[in-house]
């Protein structure tokens, strides 16, 4: 009875743990080419690790059985066996080969997911600026001239180029079923290319702990057909109010807000940190003015007077 109780408790704990890991397993249910590439890489790595574990456990059991202690006559001495150079070379080479294989797979996958997916390279990517603030997501659509807060709508079968930056602490943009995560930071823009090949609602989140409101930074990603997406954009332009600079500043200062939709973007009065607006205005006029100001404020040596010359 005790054994059955322990087994039942183990099964219950296993079910609870698997239920809690449901969102994490979304990476193994890809809905786009980028996520599929990453999912395949994860599965290949798991198979390689499982194969290593299988070999280790089989050899472990074999050694236990073959070289187990047994009764022997008094004074018995086992034969002296020298080490095998071939075995030593083998068990040194195998881990090196495994690491090389995993490294090659990882590098190829990284290069592939950084670019627009192969089947969509003939299409012009749709640019969406994804900015974060404490603890919100701002999605700006420059082509459509609209903006949403805390939710994202995208068309299927079209490459999306997300341009990520932050008005607050470092965050990490992640839609597990569409692709991997990438950081959103202040004073710079990171780019992430994703494609949704299936319609549906997907979970987006901040994968980097950024303070007390971190747990509320989940957002819905609704992938819809091109026709439905166009209808939604038209509806937003007709019904949503424009976004003013004062209201945008109020949203930035608020710790939490619900979903919001606007028929204009903040990009005109609060541009992203790229190009001439890049972090610290690299190479811009402000930097030149600052250098000139620093040069002008440096102490200058006073010319020597006749009295000074006379005292030398």
Structure description:
Among the domains are: 27-62 and 88-114, no CATH class; 119-262, Cupredoxins -  blue copper proteins (Immunoglobulin-like). Helices cover 40% and strands 19% of the residues. It contains seven helices and eleven strands. Residues 15-23 and 281-312 have low confidence and may be disordered.
Can you describe this structure in just a few lines?
This protein has 312 residues and is α+β, with helices and mostly antiparallel strands. Among the domains are: 27-62 and 88-114, no CATH class; 119-262, Immunoglobulin-like, CATH 2.60.40.420. It has helices at 2-20, 33-66, 85-114, 226-239, 245-253, 285-297, 306-311, and strands at residues 126-133, 136-141, 146-149, 151-155, 160-166, 171-174, 182-184, 190-194, 200-206, 219-224, 260-262.
Layout of helices and strands:
Layout: H1 2-20, H2 33-66, H3 85-114, E1 126-133, E2 136-141, E3 146-149, E4 151-155, E5 160-166, E6 171-174, E7 182-184, E8 190-194, E9 200-206, E10 219-224, H4 226-239, H5 245-253, E11 260-262, H6 285-297, H7 306-311
Parallel strand pairs: 1-5, 4-10
Antiparallel strand pairs: 1-2, 2-3, 3-11, 5-8, 6-7, 6-9, 9-10
Instruction: Kindly identify the CATH topology of the domain at 119-262.
Output: Immunoglobulin-like
Q: Can you name the CATH architecture of the domain at 119-262?
A: Sandwich
What Rg is obtained from the alpha carbons, in whole angstroms? 30 Å
In CATH, what is the homologous superfamily of the domain at 119-262? Answer: Cupredoxins -  blue copper proteins
Low-confidence stretches: 15-23, 281-312
Number of helices: 7
Mean pLDDT: 84
> Secondary-structure element order, as H and E?
HHHEEEEEEEEEEHHEHH
Which class of secondary structure composition applies to the elements?
A: alpha+beta
User: What is the global morphology?
Assistant: elongated
Distance between the termini: 106 Å
What is the level 1 CATH name of the domain at 119-262?
Answer: Mainly Beta
Q: Helix content range of the residues, please?
A: 40-55%
Please outline the major beta sheet.
6 strands, mixed
Number of strands: 11
